[in-house]
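pls design
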């Protein structure tokens, strides 16, 4: 019997699990995929928004502002990268300038650091702003992270401190008993006093397993992106926003924590909750919209495109509450933008505003096991590298030439708590396959390392999902 069972191991579910791992309670996380951070957490703009956009009085606003303030400390604790690089919201005509002034006044009222810049002042800081930009709102508290790295680190920290993670467990049904729930999955049954529903685009369907009148529904909002290669000189150093609309914050130009550039996303409500494919027409619209705010975008440096599905709820706001008709069943649903920025505050809110009113939390007596940071030899000095290679020669064997990733780094992240079991899981942790060749050189070597370290045949190694085997037979036999 668990005290808390979390359905979904995206960044929200993982941070809730980490929060609960501080206390004397038994916690498990169920995830339908073969890794954490595999859905919306791995396919978004990676921005810690300042809080300038959500509507007044919304949970989105409250938790965005709080989450933004929490991120620097959170990333320091988890030993992952965070950069408060700032952002510009830009106007490209007089009508947009009037709207930008309203956003500026609202940001000031919310206590968000901000200032208005003339075209000349903005160009001095971001020379590649388009020729149409006439006014910019400077938001220095905006930041960037690697969302999947934060999520993986949070889950690893949670497991280090007692949380149990069950991957490949798709929830099939939930039986409600007098004092508990029995959750049936593709791999087994799990009983818990509380269920915390963090199932993303499927959160309404999970809730419908225990309620005849869920009261909300969730649609998938699709967003498509370009990824550009790294630059000798940065295209932009800040996130560049257009004026927001009813569809969201618009097509952005975003520097990433790993020094690439993202263009996107567009915004399209779709019925298929698995349709994360790219389309030529949508990508062309992303390109055109990005060029309205930034010029000199080298589209010949595109190394990848991808799409993500955001969880868009029928209420227009985050849905974070104990179900009105099902005691001890907590919905954490419709976590779309600014969901990433809000995630640590969402975990805090779930604990303090919902669970603490139903459960007596007692802090653990034993000290926490701190998460060890990933080994990144590309950031080390020569003496540190030499010492590491002397300890383990696999750190001298280069696997990924684009990102300078060694065999030793890959072996390390396979054997950790919340370790990698698929090719994409390795990529998310230490980035082989994330560079210019997109795995053309390193992917076969990653497959071989996974097979050796997991004691599997190379033909059993997965790219990602259960049906994604990379090899089907041996040759020359």
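designed seq:
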């Amino acid at each position: 019997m668990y005290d808390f069972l979390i359905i979904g191991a995206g960044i929200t579910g993982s941070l809730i699990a980490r929060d609960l791992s501080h206390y004397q309670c038994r916690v498990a996380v169920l995830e339908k995929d073969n890794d954490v951070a595999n859905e919306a957490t791995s396919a978004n703009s990676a921005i810690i928004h300042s809080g300038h956009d959500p509507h007044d009085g919304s949970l989105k606003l409250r938790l965005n502002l709080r989450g933004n303030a929490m991120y620097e400390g959170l990333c320091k604790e988890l030993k992952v990268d965070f950069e408060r690089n700032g952002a510009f919201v830009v106007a490209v005509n007089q009508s947009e300038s009037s709207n930008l002034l309203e956003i500026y006044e609202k940001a000031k009222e919310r206590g968000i650091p901000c200032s208005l810049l003339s075209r000349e002042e903005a160009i001095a800081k971001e020379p590649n702003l388009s020729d149409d930009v006439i006014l910019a709102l400077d938001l220095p508290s905006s930041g960037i992270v690697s969302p999947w790295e934060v999520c993986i680190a949070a889950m690893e920290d949670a497991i280090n401190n007692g949380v149990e993670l069950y991957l490949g467990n798709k929830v099939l049904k939930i039986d409600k008993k007098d004092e508990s729930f029995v959750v049936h999955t593709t791999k087994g049954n799990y009983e818990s006093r509380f269920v915390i529903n963090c199932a993303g685009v499927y959160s309404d369907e999970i809730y419908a397993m225990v309620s005849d009148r869920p009261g909300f529904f969730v649609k998938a909002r699709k967003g498509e992106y370009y990824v550009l290669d790294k630059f000798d000189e940065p295209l932009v150093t800040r996130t560049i926003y257009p004026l927001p609309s009813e569809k969201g914050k618009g097509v952005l130009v975003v520097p990433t924590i790993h020094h690439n550039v993202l263009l996107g996303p567009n915004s399209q409500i779709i019925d298929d909750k698995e349709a994360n494919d790219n389309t030529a027409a949508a990508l062309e619209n992303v390109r055109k919209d990005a060029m309205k705010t930034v010029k000199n975008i080298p589209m010949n440096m595109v190394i990848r495109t991808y799409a993500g599905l955001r969880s868009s709820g029928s209420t227009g706001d985050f849905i974070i509450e104990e179900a009105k008709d099902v005691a001890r069943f907590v919905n954490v649903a419709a976590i779309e933008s600014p969901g990433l920025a809000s995630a640590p505050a969402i975990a805090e809110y779930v604990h303090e505003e919902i669970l603490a009113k139903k459960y007596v939390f007692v802090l653990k007596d034993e000290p926490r096991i701190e998460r060890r940071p990933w080994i990144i030899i590309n950031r080390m000095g020569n003496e540190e590298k030499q010492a590491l290679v002397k300890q383990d020669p696999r750190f001298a064997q280069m696997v990924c030439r684009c990102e300078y990733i060694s065999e030793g780094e890959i072996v390390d992240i396979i054997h950790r708590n919340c370790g990698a079991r698929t090719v994409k899981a390795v990529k998310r942790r230490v980035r082989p396959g994330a560079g210019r060749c997109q795995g053309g050189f390193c992917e076969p070597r990653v497959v071989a390392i996974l097979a050796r370290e997991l004691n599997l045949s190379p033909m059993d190694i997965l790219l990602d999902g259960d049906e994604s085997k990379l090899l089907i037979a041996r040759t020359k036999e």
